[in-house]
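Per reviewer request, we include the raw input and output of the structure prediction for the construct analysed in the revised manuscript.
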Amino acid sequence: MEKNRVCDLFGITYPIVQGGMVWCSGWRLASAVSRAGGLGLLGAGSMRPDLLREHIGKCRAATDKPFGVNVPLMYPEIDLLMQILVEEEVKIVFTSAGNPKTWTGYLKEHGVTVAHVVSSSRFAVKCEEAGVDAVVAEGFEAGGHNGREETTTLCLIPAVRRAVALPLLAAGGIGTAEAILAVQALGAEGVQIGTRFALTKESSAHDNFKQLCLNLNEGDTRLLLKQLSPTRLIKGDFTSLVEAAEARGASPDELRDLLGKGRAKKGIFEGNLTEGELEIGQIASLFRESQSVADVMCELTRV
């Protein structure tokens, strides 16, 4: 796997970024990916500000390689979080779920390299206008929160490549060396991988959640909650409640009440497979064992 603009931008050996996933992407996972030559990301979306500061410190102690932080721009204490990133001298930030114009300038003024996650070529153009350094184009196959356009990765990457000149990373349904080759053929210069790393031994997800995901077949996830924020969920008890609510025409407020607080933590981090919100990408159905990050990176970089 040859070095390219993505490697140069982030100071990494391989153009592979580990997604900053809620309840999966703590310092153990991020540091392991960075030590193996990729770019590890801490998932700030499931961390209180003080906990994020702690994970930044532990990640820095665990590796001298570059790492970054993923920040959903809908984060409720976003001002404080951004202040912490600057105070802790975090050098790489991936933003998502919001307008890149809001914080890109602030981060770049403090020497931060900024990438933003998009689901369409239209939003990619807005990223270029906002001054981001790279864009992640994430297709419909991805786990967790998703784009409303429902465009697949293989359709999205060439469209974004045509629209912008920025370094481009592909995401959504990528978990093998062959998939990396496929998106590179379409114009991607790197990849962001979530699901494959969420199922590794270093991921902070609960073993119950990992084992469930490692026994999925194709078709065992669905994209729901489109009135709020489209989210890919594993079929099960909670997903059935969501499907029933949407089928009877539940309002956004009713869906928010159904979600309540802490659903994703309950399912992914605490391992409650009945009441938890279980988010994972379609690619999970290809894998049957939990591997170490080192082993996964060896497989991903073998071509």
